[in-house]
Design goal:
This protein is an alpha+beta fold. It is built from six helices and eleven strands.
Length: 237
């Protein structure tokens, strides 16, 4: 993008770092898909049904940390590959259960494999989960104007709040941080959580208030980030 070889990049926001390289920006977001995590298992109906020592496969540090914070008696193992590969490994019995994003399963037409869906109050999604963002060069007003036509204003506000919190915490897709914002009737609710990778410590905070602009959303994210950060042990991120 910076070299001008392409005009934009299209990304899953869950995978984007807190800070972009200088000269790049992401200000255009498509309507958010289902942001929730899905629980998949051929043996058990829910997380609560997993017995002591059951093996859960995931490559997400957030999912590992949040899972062990609630169910320290489970065993978490690395679990890689694209979505169909992970589903196949699950069906082969390589693990007892796994997590996948509902957004990806819906987009791939594989939602029939879901055993249960985890409510955000129960299991906080990653920052930007379910959101597609368009990355542009700073100052590329011509292409920005084109993408203005398909941007989702509501998603832009919740995404700005979530990423602002993540930037204060300086988290990334490789840190055990969850952030999820909702917006209804002009009121935003934002919840952020951070956990030790082994689940031994769990920190969370939430904030609600009126949000009518990108600046309002950014401020809300920064406020909760600054409120939460002093509570975190050194090195957790």
């Amino acid at each position: 993008i910076l070299a001008g070889d392409v005009d934009c990049g299209v990304h899953s926001m869950k995978d984007m770092p807190s800070f972009l390289p200088e000269g790049l920006k992401i200000e255009h977001f498509l309507p958010r898909e289902d942001a929730r995590d899905a629980f998949l298992s051929a043996k058990y109906k829910s997380l609560a049904d997993l017995p002591e020592g059951a093996t859960v496969g995931t490559s997400s540090l957030r999912r590992q940390a949040f899972l062990l914070a609630k169910y320290p008696y489970l065993k978490v193992v690395p679990f890689r590959g694209n979505v169909p590969t992970r589903i196949e490994k699950l069906e082969q019995g390589m693990v007892d259960a796994t997590f996948l994003a509902m957004a990806g399963l819906n987009r791939l037409g594989l939602s029939e494999h879901v055993t249960s869906i985890l409510d955000p109050d129960q299991f906080l999604p990653a920052c930007g989960q379910g959101v597609i963002g368009i990355e542009l060069r700073v100052g590329d007003d011509a292409n920005a104007a084109l993408f203005d036509a398909i941007v989702c204003p509501k998603t832009s506000l919740v995404m700005t709040a979530e990423r602002a919190a993540l930037q204060v915490l300086d988290g990334s897709c490789h840190t055990p941080v969850g952030a999820f914002a909702t917006l209804m009737d002009g009121v935003m609710h934002l919840r952020v959580a951070v956990a030790q990778p082994d689940g031994s410590e769990f920190f969370e905070d939430s904030i609600s208030g009126p949000v009518a602009s990108i600046e309002d959303a950014r401020t809300m994210g920064q406020v909760i980030g600054h409120r939460l950060k002093p509570r975190l042990p050194e090195g957790i991120l």
